[in-house]
Q: What sequence folds into this?
């Protein structure tokens, strides 16, 4: 067999070839290939990445046989002596996760354990991870809700939407249905809920009261037979007693209540 190539067999007994390499005592699988030549060439490419001084930039498009994610893992292992199966490259105070040559996401070191065991996926422009059998949006890990709008509900302080370091993420509206507004007296919080269309719930000076008002609006919708599965706000700063007091006294717009009383449940 050619160097680095090993024959294997599918369930239907047809052969294919696997490639692997051992470096610094670490056995690294390089993938499966249709021919022995391809498997061996993948091994040669991996050897070049691991044992030469090829630059990081040149390494990104060096091999047409190794998966892009594997190239990142190999170069990181060469430079940092730490093999990570996901496409992560370690820097001094942060790490980069590469979805492609042009998609480099930056994270704090605190997130390394999570992303070294959870692969980031992209579908229809949205980033998510599979976590315990569920698809979790990546943004939700940073307090950004799934329906949040950039520059309205959150922003990247340095303008780089690939930079997910905590110091770079500013969540403007942390609660469902709550939207901050500036006026001459300061900040107010407008609450809206979507029941067939957007409905005004109220305008509040306190963000916690606004978050509770949204929850109350959700409860009222359910009481009137609306079966939509709404997410509700969890207000960490409020004790159960404080929450109950706000919930009992907070006002919800008469127009919203009137709508619920006259609409046919969906």
A:
């Amino acid at each position: 067999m050619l160097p680095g190539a090993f024959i294997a067999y599918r369930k239907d007994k047809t052969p294919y070839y696997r490639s692997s390499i051992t470096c610094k005592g670490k056995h690294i699988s390089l993938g499966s290939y249709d021919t022995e030549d391809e498997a061996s060439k993948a091994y040669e490419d991996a050897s070049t990445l691991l044992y030469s001084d090829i630059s990081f930039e040149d390494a990104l498009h060096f091999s047409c046989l190794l998966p892009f994610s594997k190239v990142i893992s190999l170069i990181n292992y060469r430079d940092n002596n730490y093999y990570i199966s996901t496409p992560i490259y370690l820097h001094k105070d942060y790490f980069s996760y590469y979805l492609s040559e042009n998609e480099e996401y930056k994270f704090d070191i605190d997130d390394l354990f999570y992303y070294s065991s959870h692969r980031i996926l992209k579908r229809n422009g949205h980033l998510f991870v599979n976590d315990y059998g569920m698809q979790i949006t990546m943004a939700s890990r940073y307090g950004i809700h799934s329906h949040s709008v950039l520059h309205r509900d959150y922003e990247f302080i340095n303008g780089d939407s690939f930079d997910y370091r905590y110091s770079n993420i500013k969540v403007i509206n942390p609660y469902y249905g709550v939207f901050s507004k500036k006026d001459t007296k300061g900040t107010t919080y407008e609450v809206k809920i979507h029941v067939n269309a957007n409905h005004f719930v109220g305008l509040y000076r306190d963000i916690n009261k606004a978050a509770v008002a949204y929850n109350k609006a959700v409860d009222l919708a359910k009481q009137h037979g609306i079966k939509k599965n709404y997410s509700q706000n969890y207000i960490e700063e409020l004790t159960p007693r404080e929450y109950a007091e706000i919930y009992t006294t907070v006002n919800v717009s008469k127009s919203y209540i009137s709508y619920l009383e006259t609409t046919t449940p969906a």
Remarks:
- The radius of gyration is 26 Å.
- The chain has a mean pLDDT of 94.
- Residues 84-172 form one domain.
